[in-house]
Amino acid sequence: MRRRLRFVLGSEPRELGEVEPTLTVLEYLRRIEHRRGTKEGCAEGDCGACTVLVGRPVEGRMCYRAVNACILFLPMLDGCRLLTVEDLRAPDGSLHPVQRAMVEAHASQCGFCTPGFVMALYALYRERGVARETPIAEWLAGNLCRCTGYGPILEAAQRMHAVAQGADHLEAREAETVARLESWQDGETLAVGREGRMFFAPADIGSLARLLIEHPDATLIGGATDVGLWVTKQHRRPHPLIWTGRVAELTRVEDTGDGLSIGAAATYRDVLDRLAALYPDAGRVIRRIGSVQIRNLGTIGGNIANGSPIGDSPPLLIAAGARLRLRRGNRCREVPLESFFLDYGRQDRRPGEFVEAVVVSGPGPGTLFRAYKISKRFDQDISSVFAAFRIDLDGGRIASARLAYGGMAPVPKRAELAEAALVGRPWKRQTVEAAMAALERDFTPIDDWRASAGYRMTVARNLLMKCWLESSGEIRRRLDLAAEVADG
Ligand SMILES: Cc1cc2nc3c(=O)[nH]c(=O)nc-3n(C[C@H](O)[C@H](O)[C@H](O)COP(=O)(O)OP(=O)(O)OC[C@H]3O[C@@H](n4cnc5c(N)ncnc54)[C@H](O)[C@@H]3O)c2cc1C
Ligand code: FES
Ligand code: FES
């Protein structure tokens, strides 16, 4: 076991032996390093004021991701480089092109959000080609500003590449950082802590399995985008913590021939394109989970394991027919994903067991797959209702149907009576209406501040009709008709 945490802060190496397992990167920066450019707004991953970049060497180059320092635990930086707004100025004191673009576009007023925007934009600046495919507004959805109205910030984002002249001072000395971080890579389990509270980061699946048997009460973390809030909002101090982010077997997304095996520690960012290639609608809704910062950290495994009735990926994957692979020691078992959710807050996970992967097959030739996220805001919001439908058609008849909902019951759940109302019947309006009626017997929705029970039921029913209208071309026909009427 390695007893020292190692990372690079800006350009300086850090090695720490004593670390409080749940100390956040934000607290560390502000209280211990006195780097106070990184701000605390919400302390729950919502506002982006604390945005920093975490970089890892990938194939000889540094790969950076924007993340929320307020919910990231310090030991999760092991083997990484951390960049904060203080690192952007050149050694001669001149502003970075991203900062110059912000100044020139008058994109800062009170300035509280500015370091977070600068770092989010710097991530965009560094990703260039890849990130340019993402609309800027989507890229910045995790950063809030109460002063500027966003227009000048979006303008700065357009300008920054024009202001740039070649590699910046951080890129120019990158080879040194890559060499240092690569020399630190080892197969040792990191074990750091303070006053008996421990943080473990195993480097392979066997070590993870052994650790969890030794510490069956440990809290596992993937991206800590849920567990981070237990600490900052509920003032809990779970320990020991076991982080899955260094376990290569868990971070992989593998082709299975007819689908994907998604490791429990694969982030939304890692999964998005692969899942979207299988099911385009899955890509559309995953893009609406949290923000870029949250998707860079949050994992599908964490979203499943937390058992929330309003998590987005469980209904999506249940509809797709996914199976969950669980592991304890050397033993694995696979269960249909829906059967993992026993009741509110209760999952089919035994002591010492962990989620290893979720395995999902692709669509067949007659598969219709749709997913819908309904939330009050388009970006960075939790679903009121999430619905995903897989309908397999055979010559116009419904051969099989999987209708899965979030936000309609204490757990993510299939609508079995509505499914029965579909199977064997023609895919037409009357069949869908019968299934909509059956939904009323499938669910007694929850009623809370996010949405009333009546609203949830209406939405659940209407999404099924929307799916039929979309698939039958009815929506297109009605829009064309409306356009003809409008044209006179
Ligand atoms: C600002 C913000 C916005 C968000 N938006 C959304 C959203 O739009 N939709 C949505 O669904 N969620 C959203 N979330 C919730 C969260 O991001 C997701 O649930 C995420 O997928 C959790 O993954 P994680 O790796 O960060 O989980 P963690 O916080 O690391 O863990 C979550 C739970 O899973 C357990 N766990 C983790 N890995 C394993 C494993 N391998 N085996 C067994 N147990 C494990 C942990 O012990 C814990 O109980 C949001 C969160 C924030 C802070
Ligand atoms: S302080 Fe608001 S996202 Fe971190
Ligand atoms: S400039 Fe004041 S919050 Fe953005």
Uncertain runs with pLDDT below 50, 5 residues or more? none
Strand content: 15-25%
The largest pleated sheet is described as: 5 strands, mixed
- Read across the widest sheet, the strand sequence of neighbours is 2-1-5-3-4
Query: Count of DSSP helices?
Result: 20
Distance between the termini: 76 Å
DSSP, total strands: 20
Relative helix content: 25-40%
What is the CA-based Rg, rounded?
Answer: 24 Å
Mean pLDDT: 94
Write down the overall geometry. Answer: globular
Find the structural class using helix and strand composition. alpha+beta
Bound molecules: flavin-adenine dinucleotide, FE2/S2 (inorganic) cluster
Describe, in plain words, how this protein is organized in 3D.
The model has no long low-confidence stretch (mean pLDDT 94). It is globular and about 70 Å long. Helix 17 runs antiparallel to helix 18 and helix 18 (429-442) runs antiparallel to helix 19 (453-472). It contains 20 helices and 20 strands. It is an alpha+beta fold. A 5-stranded mixed sheet has the order 2-1-5-3-4. The protein has a 5-stranded antiparallel sheet with strand order 10-11-16-12-13. The protein has helices at residues 25-32, 97-104, 114-127, 129-132, 136-139, 151-163, 169-172, 174-184, 205-214, 227-232, 248-251, 268-278, 280-286, 292-297, 300-305, 313-319, 416-422, 429-442, 453-472, 474-486; strands at 5-9, 12-16, 51-58, 61-68, 81-83, 190-194, 197-201, 219-221, 241-243, 253-255, 259-263, 323-328, 331-336, 341-343, 346-347, 354-361, 367-374, 385-394, 397-406, 413-414. The protein starts with a strand and ends with a helix. The structure holds flavin-adenine dinucleotide and FE2/S2 (inorganic) cluster (FES) (2 copies). The site of one FE2/S2 (inorganic) cluster has 11 residues, from loops.
